[in-house]
Amino acid sequence: MTVQPHPPRPLVSAALGRPDRAQLARRLLRSVALGYLLLLLALPVLLIFWRTFEHGLGPVLGALQRPAFQSAFWLTLQITLIAVPINTVFGIVAALAIVRRRFPGRALLNAAIDLPFVLSPVVVGLSLVLVYGKDGWLGGMLEQLGITVIFATPGMVLATLFVSLPFVVREVIPVLREIGTDQEQAAYTLGASPWRTFWRVTLPAIRWGVIYGVILTTARSLGEFGAVAIVSGRISGKTETLTTHVEERYWAFDLVGAYTASIVLALMALVVLLSMTLYQSGRLRRRNTHGYQPAATDETLR
Questions:
Q1: Does 9 map to a domain?
Q2: Residue 149 belongs to what domain range?
Q3: Helices (H) and strands (E) in the chain, counts
Q4: How many domains does the chain divide into?
Q5: Exposed, middle or buried: residue 26 (CB in 10 Å: 0-12, 13-18, 19+)?
Q6: Angle at the Cα of 114 (from 85 to 121), degrees rounded to 5?
Q7: 220-223: which pairs have CB atoms within 8 A and are 24 or more residues apart?
Q8: Per-residue pLDDT tens for 181-238?
């Protein structure tokens, strides 16, 4: 009695089955990701837009013309225009100090910069009240000098500065480490001063990291709520930003006013997002076009 060998399994079907399963897995992952983004981001934003304009354009224009909204809008822009340049300068200086210098407390500075990432904004606002409030450590002395910090614009600026502090630093540090010090050393060899080397060599090399950090800082400053809500006092027409204005209008049952302010914040966020997208596409295009950083020359330093 002879045993008949089993016929060989078709290799073609097995080979075809693996790509089919891989393609199915990719489609499943893509569907889960898109569905998650749709439910978490797209659907709520689209619903806000629909609820804002469901009664026409008239109520929206009326909400935009209210003094409380205009005051909140301009105060938000004012705080952002103050906080972003300060944190940009600090971010560049701190990044240079951490990467290019060695000094006692360098590791502590590097760790302290990340505090806004781990502290709740409400805790930040409360700590500012304890320091700069009327009964705080510095509040009494500042009040004698006629300076009001808490429940005024300076306190809101301080809160925004704190929560948006790390972004420029964290975007510039990797760029500084990537470019190294060769070009700067070449500039010093050619006789350039440290100040001229910074403007002619270092800053152009890190400009895209600075731009990206500024975009993130702007977005964080525009959307800050927790810390600002604590230190502002939420005085309508005086110390109310757009984020706190949205909450105030909502609890006052002025849904159109709340939705309108939300739409304005969303449009600002879209502008920031568009700027970030343009930045990324421009950076990739320049990398593909040039592919290298030109070394410092005597003509460059003039």
A1: no
A2: 59-289
A3: 16, 0
A4: 2
A5: exposed
A6: 80
A7: 220/163, 220/164, 220/167, 221/79, 221/80, 221/83, 221/84, 221/160, 221/164, 222/76, 222/80, 222/265, 222/268, 222/269, 222/272, 223/265, 223/269
A8: 888 888 888 888 889 999 989 999 999 899 989 999 999 999 999 999 999 988 888 8
